[in-house]
Every structure is written in C-alpha cells, then in structure tokens.
Amino acid sequence: MTVGIARLTLYIPDSHSLKEKRMVLRRVKDRTRDKFNVAVAEVEDNDVWQRAVLGLAVVGNEGRFVESALDEVIRFVQGQAEVTNTEREIQNFSDAVGTNDLEVKFR
C-alpha cells in the first residue's frame, strides 16, 4: 500500500472575510473531490482571511500511480487557486501483515 500526502498553501487575495474564504475553499475542495476522489481538508490557518492550507491524501496499490495522481491533483488545485507553497510525501507500507497483527491492532 502506498499513501501520498500533500500540504498546499493557498493565497486568496480577493477574500475580505472568513465567509468569502470559506466559499472559495468549498469550491476548490468540492471540485477536487469530485474529479479525483481524494481526501482533502483545510488543516491550518483557519482564521486567516487570505491564506489557507489544504491537506490532500491519495491511497493506492502502486507508488507510481499514487505519485502521478498526487501530481495531477496538485496541478488541478493550482489551476483553481493561487498556490504559494507545496509540500508532498509518498509513504510505502509493507503488504506483509499477518492475521495475528490485525487481531491485535483492531481489538
């Protein structure tokens, strides 16, 4: 299993209130979810009018798929809003999990 995460910092110059900021963010998040079926949420700067930080997550079986999907999502968001900073990480997890491990983790 491979997980890709990204943190995007957005600048929203036309926002003059938290209500305006949230309208812009709702549009970006909804369009991103609808197009790519990824997890997306505002993760920082919740009370700052003109800046937002979005967290994105993509999960898949292959690292190449996750990396290309994350690239595509980032490009899409960059087309929707002004992105001033992008951080990303790809994490691989071993598929070798025994049934005993699962029983212990989910008890």
Feature tags:
35% strand; Alpha-Beta Plaits; 4-stranded antiparallel beta sheet; alpha+beta; 107 residues; single chain; 4 strands
Verbal overview:
The chain is an alpha+beta fold. The chain has one domain (2-105): TT1725-like (Alpha-Beta Plaits), CATH 3.30.70.1120. The protein contains 3 helices and 4 strands, in the order E-H-E-E-H-E-H. The protein has helices spanning 18-36, 63-80, 99-105; strands at residues 2-11, 39-44, 51-60, 82-92. A 4-stranded antiparallel sheet has the order 2-3-1-4, with helices on one face. The longest helix has 19 residues, at 18-36. The chain is elongated. The mean pLDDT is 86.
List the helices and strands and how they pair.
Elements lengths: L1 E10 L6 H19 L2 E6 L6 E10 L2 H18 L1 E11 L6 H7 L2
Antiparallel strand pairs: 1-3, 1-4, 2-3
Overall spatial form: elongated
Largest sheet: 4 strands, antiparallel
Q: What's the number of helices?
A: 3
CATH topology: Alpha-Beta Plaits
As a percent range, the share of helical residues equals: 40-55%
In short:
By secondary structure, the protein is an alpha+beta fold.
